[in-house]
Amino acid sequence: MVITATCTSPQPPWNLRRKPKSSTGVFRSWIGSPDNGPWGTLPSWELSPYSLDLLAERGFLYDSSLMGDDAPYFVDTANGRMVEIPVEWALDDVPYYAFSRGAGSMNTPEDVYKAWEWEFDGAYQYGRALTLTMHPQVTGRLAKIMVLERLIKYMQSHTGAEFFRCCDVAKARTADGMRPSD
After folding, report:
1. What is the pLDDT of residue 98?
2. Do the beta carbons of residue 94 and residue 138 sit within 8 Å?
3. Most buried among 3, 4, 115, 180, by the most CB within 10 A?
4. For the whole model, what pTM was predicted?
5. 3-state secondary structure of 64
6. 148 and 109 in contact (C-beta within 8 Å)?
């Protein structure tokens, strides 16, 4: 589960401080207080000048809103260092599947499979990370789920390919890369 903090506008920090706090409280009321602390991403990956500082202030382990690399890295904030688990529009389901009048037709699940297979092949070849972003209201349809299952099986067929939750990546990240899992 990802906690989403709604702090996307360039408002002064006193207006934004309440939003991550209230979002965190809602999710914790549903799932309890997880041992690994809060984690998060910003809606539509839109940052204000204060967003990362506020997430770090709230104790978030990572952000997943920036596109600065194709592997996790650190970002320094006024309130400490956080892990950034980078995202990429080409690895998000919305640009492929969303319907927009006048913008043309949606891609087929097969088109998306092929694009993500190529993205995985590049990441695998160069030893990089692949962070897929999926929304239940977008990918949660039968054909799209079948394609996702096929993609996961394809990835699993590659020696050394591993799957991690973002919170586990954040906890294991060091200056030299990932600590080996226990």
Report:
1. 84
2. yes
3. 3
4. 0.75
5. coil
6. no
Which range, 7-16, 25-34, 83-92, is most confident? 83-92
Exposure string (b/e) for 45-82, b if CB count within 10 Å is 16 or more? Answer: bebbebbbbbbbbbebbbbbbbeeebbbeebebeeeeb
What is residue 34's predicted lDDT score, i.e. its pLDDT? 47
Which two tokens mark 84? Answer: 């950034």
**Token reading at 114:** 């092929």
Closest CA to 115 of 145, 71, 147: 147
Which is it for strands 62-63 and 80-84: parallel, antiparallel or unpaired? parallel
Please give the structure tokens belonging to residue 150: 């096929």
The 3-state DSSP composition of the chain as helix, strand, coil percent (nearest 5) reads 45, 10, 45
SS3 assignment, position 134: coil
